[in-house]
């Protein structure tokens, strides 16, 4: 280990203890074992950083081993993508290995298992086998084929290998313990028949090893010292060790499996199956869509290897699964790009501004600093002319006092240029502003040193010269899901939470220095965020992807939604105090608008849960959420909680609470009949 003083995580402590107990430094070897059935995602990035980081810390080799034991789902495309991602992250493996490298050895060992009476061919249906395997609370029963003779098992297993049987007719099972409290030890499957073409071995094999059989044995063959897996493999450790016990030679390193927590990321999914579903159902444009949690998607969006490595270090290694807010990942890329990305100007929602006292036909090339965070970044020239674009939201004709941008009679500075004052506007027939007229202070050029240039004004705006602007397609990406844990609600399909506003495509206008920008080059569009050149970009049609905004807009959104809930609860109390129906209806309308503004399913669900109590205001609020929200259905609420809400509401002393519950029950057909008697009493 490095001599540098630092606290060890529990994984490093395991290694340190093994070294103290006699494991030689030269025996350390790690591995990253992806299955090539999809693209790697952000969770894999943490695992890559862990294993390859340990290799760097201990000066130990790290193998890249593909778990290619299921040809039904695996493709060479995924192998290539995985290798590309690992190298892009900045790591290089010692050896490139495949589980398929060991197919013959695994088969030979399986034959030895059969000869020793430790494996048998089972010919039950999958349904029958599931039934005889028992449950976590009941013991399993032996398969009727468990005591087949060694000779019969050897014959059947060889014929399975030779392709004589259809898929599903036979499997090879380890003979362990059908009464084990660990379900995985109840005669687990070692081989199944698959008549599928393998991307490396072709049609040489008709049987393929299961992961649990191939995993530990592959580790052993490669002399991996430590096999780190996510927590779902903790119950598999006993089986991992049992398989090793049967073949272990004490003169060799015995691999050790240990587990760490999966790090789930909010507002996305990190299941290959669900990522594939997003691709297949065309919610995204492919595995490298910039909204995806895949490494290739993050790369295309503009994330850097350094930001992902830093993210892995920031979240660390834990023993319990937890949900990491995506804002922490966004903070890592902001921190990285703040240091390295050149500052440029682009306008994404343009409105024309004419500087009426600037000479027609005149243009100036002004100095603009490339990156104030980098003293070596230097300056570039940007053109200035009479007609420019500014952002539409940067102008308000009749602005409030705290509007610190351009308005009629108010001054602002144009970045790197002059101070201007709004004078008038031109509108179309519908009253929309099509042109802003302003005047400029001729002595106020930034950096000129004049008294006018040092004058303080209310704000600074970015802009582009219309005559020199480059039109570009700008893809404004946002979070793919509008729910922080879209796949954690058992009663909901995760696809219901897909954010309809996760991509907006606009035509932006860029300063001319961006004409030569190339794929994956990154920039800060001043006052807007960080953007990267997409692979679809050409010189004739530039395409930029929004990587991340300068601030976390979702944090502000979350606060607004929480305030909407809290404000609604305050309004509820007024609801009971007013006397007139019109006032009461106005309050309910206000509460309904607040509820409709909340897009967070979890916030709505938790608000209902917290407010099912004997307080009449709380009960009314829970009923109003069910009545007015279009994000949550009756079936989305736990059945027992919903029954409790209805029971308490119908027994409430408040006629308003009773009425709200009755109104909901009219729409909740699954519960209306159940509460019919109580409804009659409440009326």
TrEMBL record:
<comment type="subunit">
    <text>Monomer.</text>
</comment>
<feature type="binding site">
    <location>
        <position position="211"/>
    </location>
    <ligand>
        <name>L-glutamine</name>
    </ligand>
</feature>
<dbReference type="InterPro" id="IPR049437">
    <property type="entry name" value="tRNA-synt_1c_C2"/>
</dbReference>
<dbReference type="InterPro" id="IPR011035">
    <property type="entry name" value="Ribosomal_bL25/Gln-tRNA_synth"/>
</dbReference>
<dbReference type="InterPro" id="IPR022861">
    <property type="entry name" value="Gln_tRNA_ligase_bac"/>
</dbReference>
<dbReference type="InterPro" id="IPR004514">
    <property type="entry name" value="Gln-tRNA-synth"/>
</dbReference>
<dbReference type="InterPro" id="IPR001412">
    <property type="entry name" value="aa-tRNA-synth_I_CS"/>
</dbReference>
<dbReference type="GO" id="GO:0005829">
    <property type="term" value="C:cytosol"/>
</dbReference>
<dbReference type="InterPro" id="IPR020056">
    <property type="entry name" value="Rbsml_bL25/Gln-tRNA_synth_N"/>
</dbReference>
<feature type="domain" description="tRNA synthetases class I (E and Q) anti-codon binding">
    <location>
        <begin position="460"/>
        <end position="534"/>
    </location>
</feature>
<feature type="short sequence motif" description="'HIGH' region">
    <location>
        <begin position="34"/>
        <end position="44"/>
    </location>
</feature>
<feature type="domain" description="Glutamyl/glutaminyl-tRNA synthetase class Ib catalytic">
    <location>
        <begin position="27"/>
        <end position="338"/>
    </location>
</feature>
<dbReference type="InterPro" id="IPR000924">
    <property type="entry name" value="Glu/Gln-tRNA-synth"/>
</dbReference>
<feature type="binding site">
    <location>
        <begin position="35"/>
        <end position="37"/>
    </location>
    <ligand>
        <name>ATP</name>
    </ligand>
</feature>
<protein>
    <recommendedName>
        <fullName>Glutamine--tRNA ligase</fullName>
        <ecNumber>6.1.1.18</ecNumber>
    </recommendedName>
</protein>
<dbReference type="GO" id="GO:0006424">
    <property type="term" value="P:glutamyl-tRNA aminoacylation"/>
</dbReference>
<dbReference type="Pfam" id="PF03950">
    <property type="entry name" value="tRNA-synt_1c_C"/>
</dbReference>
<dbReference type="InterPro" id="IPR050132">
    <property type="entry name" value="Gln/Glu-tRNA_Ligase"/>
</dbReference>
<keyword id="KW-0030">Aminoacyl-tRNA synthetase</keyword>
<feature type="binding site">
    <location>
        <position position="230"/>
    </location>
    <ligand>
        <name>ATP</name>
    </ligand>
</feature>
<dbReference type="InterPro" id="IPR014729">
    <property type="entry name" value="Rossmann-like_a/b/a_fold"/>
</dbReference>
<keyword id="KW-0963">Cytoplasm</keyword>
<keyword id="KW-0547">Nucleotide-binding</keyword>
<feature type="binding site">
    <location>
        <begin position="270"/>
        <end position="272"/>
    </location>
    <ligand>
        <name>ATP</name>
    </ligand>
</feature>
<feature type="binding site">
    <location>
        <position position="67"/>
    </location>
    <ligand>
        <name>L-glutamine</name>
    </ligand>
</feature>
<keyword id="KW-0436">Ligase</keyword>
<dbReference type="Pfam" id="PF00749">
    <property type="entry name" value="tRNA-synt_1c"/>
</dbReference>
<dbReference type="GO" id="GO:0004819">
    <property type="term" value="F:glutamine-tRNA ligase activity"/>
</dbReference>
<dbReference type="InterPro" id="IPR020058">
    <property type="entry name" value="Glu/Gln-tRNA-synth_Ib_cat-dom"/>
</dbReference>
<dbReference type="GO" id="GO:0005524">
    <property type="term" value="F:ATP binding"/>
</dbReference>
<feature type="compositionally biased region" description="Polar residues">
    <location>
        <begin position="134"/>
        <end position="145"/>
    </location>
</feature>
<dbReference type="Pfam" id="PF20974">
    <property type="entry name" value="tRNA-synt_1c_C2"/>
</dbReference>
<feature type="domain" description="Glutamyl/glutaminyl-tRNA synthetase class Ib anti-codon binding">
    <location>
        <begin position="341"/>
        <end position="441"/>
    </location>
</feature>
<feature type="region of interest" description="Disordered">
    <location>
        <begin position="124"/>
        <end position="145"/>
    </location>
</feature>
<keyword id="KW-0067">ATP-binding</keyword>
<keyword id="KW-0648">Protein biosynthesis</keyword>
<dbReference type="InterPro" id="IPR020059">
    <property type="entry name" value="Glu/Gln-tRNA-synth_Ib_codon-bd"/>
</dbReference>
<comment type="similarity">
    <text>Belongs to the class-I aminoacyl-tRNA synthetase family.</text>
</comment>
<dbReference type="GO" id="GO:0006425">
    <property type="term" value="P:glutaminyl-tRNA aminoacylation"/>
</dbReference>
């Amino acid at each position: 280990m490095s001599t540098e003083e630092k606290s060890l995580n529990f994984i490093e402590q395991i290694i340190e203890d093994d070294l103290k107990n006699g494991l030689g430094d030269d025996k350390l070897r790690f591995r990253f074992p992806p299955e090539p059935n999809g693209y790697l995602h952000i969770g894999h990035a943490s695992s890559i950083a862990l294993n390859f980081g340990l290799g760097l810390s201990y000066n130990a080799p790290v193998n890249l081993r593909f778990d290619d034991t299921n040809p039904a789902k695996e493709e060479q495309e995924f192998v290539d993508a995985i290798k590309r991602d690992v190298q892009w992250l900045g790591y290089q493996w010692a050896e490139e290995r495949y589980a398929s490298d060991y197919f013959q050895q695994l088969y030979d060992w399986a034959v030895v298992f059969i000869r020793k009476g430790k494996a048998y061919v089972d010919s039950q249906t999958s349904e029958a086998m599931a039934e005889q395997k028992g449950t976590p609370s009941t013991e399993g029963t032996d398969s009727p084929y468990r005591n087949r003779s060694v000779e019969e098992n050897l014959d059947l297993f060889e014929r399975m290998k030779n392709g004589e049987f259809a898929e599903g007719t036979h499997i090879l099972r380890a003979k362990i313990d059908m009464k084990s409290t660990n379900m995985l030890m109840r005669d687990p499957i070692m081989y199944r028949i698959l008549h599928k073409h393998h991307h490396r071995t072709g049609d040489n094999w008709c049987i393929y090893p299961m992961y649990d059989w191939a995993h530990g044995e592959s580790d052993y063959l490669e002399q991996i010292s430590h096999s780190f897996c996510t927590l779902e493999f903790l119950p598999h450790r006993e089986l991992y060790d049992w398989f090793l016990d049967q073949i272990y030679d004490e003169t060799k390193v015995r691999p050790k499996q240990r587990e760490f927590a999966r790090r789930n990321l909010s507002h996305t999914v990190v299941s290959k199956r669900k990522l594939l579903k997003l691709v297949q159902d065309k919610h995204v444009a492919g595995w490298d869509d910039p909204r995806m949690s895949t490494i290739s998607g993050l790369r295309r969006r503009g994330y850097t290897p350094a930001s992902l490595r830093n993210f892995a270090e920031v979240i660390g290694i834990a023993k319990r699964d937890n949900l990491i807010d995506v804002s922490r990942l966004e903070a890592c890329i902001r921190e990285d790009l703040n240091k390295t990305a050149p500052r440029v100007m682009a306008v994404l929602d343009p409105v024309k501004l004419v500087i009426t006292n600037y000479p027609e036909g005149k243009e100036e090339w002004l100095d603009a600093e490339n990156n104030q965070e980098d003293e070596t970044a230097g300056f570039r020239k940007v053109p200035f002319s009479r007609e420019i674009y500014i952002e539409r939201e940067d102008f308000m004709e009749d602005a409030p006092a705290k509007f610190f941008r351009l308005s009629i009679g108010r001054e602002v500075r144009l970045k790197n240029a002059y101070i201007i004052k709004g004078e008038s506007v031109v509108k179309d027939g519908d009253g929309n502003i099509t042109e802003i007229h302003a005047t400029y202070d001729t002595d106020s050029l930034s950096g000129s040193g004049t008294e006018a240039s040092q004058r303080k004004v209310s704000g600074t705006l970015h802009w582009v010269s219309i005559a020199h602007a480059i039109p570009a397609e700008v893809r404004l990406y946002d979070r793919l899901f509008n729910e922080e844990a879209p796949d954690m609600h058992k009663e909901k399909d995760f696809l219901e939470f897909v954010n309809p506003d996760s991509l907006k495509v606009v035509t932006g206008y860029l300063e001319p220095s961006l004409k030569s920008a190339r794929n994956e080059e990154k920039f800060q569009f001043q006052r807007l965020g960080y953007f990267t050149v997409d692979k679809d970009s050409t010189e004739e049609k530039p395409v930029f992807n929004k990587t991340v905004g300068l601030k976390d807009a979702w944090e502000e959104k979350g606060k607004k939604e929480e305030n909407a809930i809290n404000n609604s609860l305050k309004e509820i109390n007024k609801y009971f105090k007013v006397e007139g129906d019109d006032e009461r209806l106005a309050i309910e309308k206000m509460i309904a608008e607040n509820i409709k503004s909340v897009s967070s399913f979890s916030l709505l669900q938790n608000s209902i849960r917290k407010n099912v109590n004997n307080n009449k205001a709380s009960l009314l609020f829970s009923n109003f959420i069910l009545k007015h929200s279009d994000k949550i259905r009756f079936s989305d609420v736990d059945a027992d909680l919903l029954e409790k809400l209805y029971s308490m509401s119908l027994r409430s002393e408040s006629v308003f609470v009773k009425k709200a519950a009755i109104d909901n029950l009219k729409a909740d057909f699954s519960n209306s009949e159940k509460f019919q008697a109580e409804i009659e009493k409440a009326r």
